[in-house]
Design goal:
Elements (H helix, E strand, L loop, with lengths): L1 H20 L8 E5 L11 E6 L5 E6 L2 H8 L2 E7 L11 H8 L4 E5 L7 H9 L22 H31 L21 H15 L9 E11 L1 H9 L7 E5 L23 E5 L7 H10 L5 E5 L14 H16 L6 H4 L1 H7 L4 E5 L2
Parallel strand pairs: 4-5, 4-6, 6-7, 7-8, 8-9
Antiparallel strand pairs: 1-2, 2-3, 3-5, 9-10
Helix pairs in contact: 3-9
């Protein structure tokens, strides 16, 4: 009987572990992979991988880990949260693959998939189009500006979604009141969208990487530099990054087209800014970016760590759809090379207005606490 109970406890523990990481297998096991844009422009051709022991995430890494480590030393890590807090990193695929080709291992929330990158971006850009630039995808295809009818339809769909969420919130509040729960929260005036992912997943990915780095049977054994870790996210994923940036294992934080401002999102509020302990880089799309005001508020409120905020002309969708991730990938790689690899030569573009303007003549930059 004791044996049966003990076996049941062990099985329960294994099941709990599988729920956390998406599979019972403990060793890394690449089961699916693809190469995009010939593996990036860096010296270590990258691949996008799905791992049997990490089914809820996608890995972006040099295809030949040993070659990269032999040349670079252990590889720094990137933890990534997606725009919209989506359960897919398809829209950031070229961007993260490009970073990986320069000697990084990035783990993004969302299972491995092979959806059509270009079809995805054509749909996204039909609703969010920066008026001051042409949108040309990485394959050279130009996305036409949305028609007035498409804009109107997108707005109608958004209003329907808000109405549905408000109705669901009101229904949940009424049900809670009927059950006699005390202090039942009233329906919010502006409902919070239900998200497919949560901020803690970024730390779950970190736990998996730590485990793999310590297992001699893992292909990541002693390959990862866990002393140099960036947490990063775009839009809603940026809120996820801010929500976990207090973790002592984080070395730097990159906030893309995002900012918390006066909002509450993914469990993050402006109070989290007081707990920051690493250098911060905000990369925002300028006044046409819906995150512009929030990011500006964050910049003013951050007092205890160095922070750089760059504003571009690209709106909320950045340059992720462009070849090799566009200028956003170049700027972020410069920051990561400085912060995670100690490449002091990269610091000039963030600390010198003159150098910054030479590299990004249409962008603006501010900094403080250096």
């Amino acid at each position: 009987m004791r044996h049966i109970v003990k076996t049941s406890i062990i099985s329960a523990a294994l099941i709990a572990s599988s729920m956390l990481f998406g599979a019972i297998s403990s060793d890394a096991q690449t089961v699916k992979s693809q190469v995009v844009e010939n593996g990036g422009t860096g010296p270590y051709k990258a691949m996008v991988a799905g791992d049997a022991s990490l089914e809820k995430f996608t890995i972006y890494r040099p295809a030949d880990l040993k070659a990269a480590v032999n040349a670079e030393g252990k590889l720094p890590v990137i933890l990534y949260g997606n725009g919209g807090c989506q359960n897919s990193s398809i829209e950031i695929r070229y961007f993260l693959s490009e970073l990986a080709s320069y000697g990084y291992v990035a783990v993004a929330i969302g299972p491995y998939d092979e959806d059509d990158f270009f079809a995805h971006w054509k749909d996204v850009m039909s609703g969010m189009y920066p008026e001051n630039k042409r949108v040309i995808l990485a394959n050279g295809e130009e996305v036409p500006k949305p028609t007035p009818e498409e804009v109107r339809q997108r707005e109608e769909n958004m209003q329907k979604m808000i109405a549905q969420m408000r109705a669901e919130a009101e229904k949940a509040a009424k049900e809670a009141a009927k059950k006699g729960k005390k202090n039942a929260a009233p329906a919010p005036a502006v409902p919070v969208a239900r998200q497919a992912t949560y901020a803690k997943q970024l730390l779950e990915a970190m736990d998996w990487l730590t485990d793999q780095n310590a297992q001699s049977s893992s292909e990541y054994y002693h390959m990862l530099d866990l002393e140099h870790v960036a947490v990063m996210g775009q839009s809603c994923g940026g809120a996820q990054a801010l929500a976990v940036a207090h973790d002592p294992r984080i070395s730097t934080c990159v906030i893309l087209n995002s900012g918390i401002g006066d909002m509450e999102m993914q469990g993050c509020t402006q109070e989290q800014l007081k707990n920051l302990h690493t250098p911060m880089f905000y990369l925002i799309g300028g006044p046409s970016d819906v995150a512009y005001e929030n990011a500006a508020k964050d910049f003013r409120r951050i007092e205890n760590v160095p922070v750089v905020m760059a504003n571009t002309i690209d709106g909320h969708e950045g340059t992720y759809y462009e070849k090799s991730g566009g200028l956003y990938a170049i700027a972020v790689r410069g920051w990561l090379d400085w912060q995670l690899k100690g490449d002091i030569s990269q610091s000039a573009q963030f600390l010198s207005d003159k150098v910054f303007q030479l590299l990004y003549p249409e962008w603006e930059v501010v900094r403080k606490n250096f």
